[in-house]
Amino acid sequence: MNTEHLDALKARLDARRPLPGTVVSNLREDLAVRWTYNSNAIEGNTLTLRETKVVLEGITVGGKSMKEHLEATNHVHAIDFIFELVDKGEPLTERTIKEVHALVLKGINDDIAGKYRTENVVISGADHVPPDHLHVAEQMAGFMAWYAGDGMSLHVVERAARLHVDLVKIHPFSDGNGRTARLLMNLELMQGGFPPIVVQNAERLAYYEALDTAHTTDNYAPFFDLTETIVEKSFEPYWFALGMDKEQAE
């Protein structure tokens, strides 16, 4: 992972901060729609980008289930929570992870929202088999110990990617692991001063393959490469909003 290049992009953006309030508001509104649409679409939600936008504006879309509507509104509430954590400088904790997950599944499945799974699960289409549910609490404790220890020695982008991969590997919840992991990955990136990223639904196959490779072989390189590319792209809306072309940004 070429973290020096990513740091250089961040430095160029930092040099333009604080950004105008109108720019920040517009970028955040656009991000909320794109992030919500893509993260939910990866998990099978059939709302289109435009349908997601109108649902977030409070309009019901005909022919779509209540679950799909809730997945959209819940996700944007979870995004708001992530921004609140960043503004407060709140560190990542197991409680934070459970709170984010609870927001993702609120009103969809309150019995499991914010609670570690009590049964074994399989990941559809993946070679990796998550650990027995009896080991989830222990593995999550180990995960948090890694995060607070060795994880802190990593570059923030690498740490965010590892956080995502390792959380999904444990698969601590019965449902909503992917959306929760992508939210927490962005929490880590934003805490480190990077823009939040959007994993595109169109990248779903490469994304799943990179995750499974890391889970089954401990080879994180494909996921790191994918993350690096997406992080680089995450700066583009800022350059556009600031009236900078790519050459100026670089």
Describe what you observe in this structure.
The protein is globular. The chain has 12 helices and no strands. The chain has a single domain (3-245), classed as Orthogonal Bundle (Fic-like fold). It has helices spanning 3-14, 21-42, 49-56, 66-88, 94-105, 136-148, 156-170, 177-191, 204-217, 221-234, 236-241, 246-249. α4 (66-88) runs parallel beside α8 and α7 (156-170) runs antiparallel to α8. By secondary structure, the protein is an all-alpha fold.
The biggest beta sheet reads: none
Helical segment tally? 12
CATH architecture: Orthogonal Bundle
- CATH superfamily annotation: Fido-like domain
- Average pLDDT, all residues: 96
Rg: 18 Å
| Fraction of helical residues | 55-70%
- CATH domain fold name: Fic-like fold
Q: How much strand?
A: under 5%
Number of strands: 0
Could you tell me how far the N terminus lies from the C terminus, measured between alpha carbons in angstroms? Answer: 18 Å
Uncertain residue ranges: none
Q: Could you state the order of secondary-structure elements as H and E?
A: HHHHHHHHHHHH
Count of structural domains: 1
**Class in CATH?**
Mainly Alpha
The backbone outline, from C-alpha atoms, is globular
Helix/strand structural class: mainly alpha
